[in-house]
Amino acid sequence: MNPSVFCSKIPELAIPGFLNLMQGTSVQLKTTRHRSSKSGDFRAAHNSDPARITVNDNLNPYAFLVTFVHEMAHYQTWMDYQQVKQTFTIRRHPLPQPHGNEWKNNFRQLMRPFLSEKVFPENLLPILCRYLENPKASTSADKPLALALQKYDPAGPAIRLEELPPDAIFSLHGNGKRMFRKKEKLRTRYRCICMKTNRIYLVSGNAPVMPL
After folding, report:
1. What's the distance, CA 112 to chain centroid?
2. 176: pLDDT confidence band, cut at 50, 70 and 90?
3. What is the pLDDT of residue 140?
């Protein structure tokens, strides 16, 4: 995918920083439809396939940018590890944890050029800065940041899953083909049962859903 597609998804004043991050990289970019389990994804290069980053295309510009940089930090961590492998054996230098200190440091460093009121609204910026002090594996797991980002979602009938009563029937916002029943909460996610298959899904309490 041409990086210009991602440029259309992020705040306009973030575009120079985005292009700077992409310069000299071979990572492939792709937008995808809404995924209830994640907002973005990184896959390392394998054989002839290049490294790839995907981001949900229904995210608002600020959430899209944060998600992209989150995944770009995974790419940078993976690239750092490839360089280390050339000097040390794998046994002497184990694979970094997915959201360990290496990733956190890269995330903070890559986000730094965007931490400006020219890019983020002044009421969102301090919440994002606090999150970056010790970023979690997902922005949805950080409730203050998740709620702050959701304020910039397009207006619509969707509500957060946590606002529904137990046993309520709903569909996931952006994917109304399947119906679910809300069950008990497990830490930050709710156990939900697909009405068609009876399969169990764990859905974030902050996920936008459509009550049925």
Report:
1. 17
2. low
3. 82
C-alpha distance from residue 1 to each of 25, 26, 66, 70 (Å) = 14, 12, 19, 19
For 155-165, what is each residue's pLDDT tens digit?
A: 777 788 998 99
Question: What is the percent of the chain with per-residue pLDDT over 90, rounded to a whole number?
Answer: 58
Choose among 176, 179, 148, 147: nearest CA to 163: 147
Q: Do the beta carbons of residue 62 and residue 68 sit within 8 Å?
A: no
The answer to whether residue 75 scores a pLDDT higher than 80 is yes
Q: Are 139 and 66 in contact (CB under 8 A)?
A: yes
- 9 Cβ contact partners less than 8 Å away, ≥ 6 residues apart: 31, 55, 57, 59, 61, 64
The amino acid present at 62, given as its one-letter code, is: Y
Name which of 197, 192, 203 is nearest 169 in CA terms: 192
Structure tokens at 115: 């931490």
Residue 186 bridge partners (DSSP) = 189
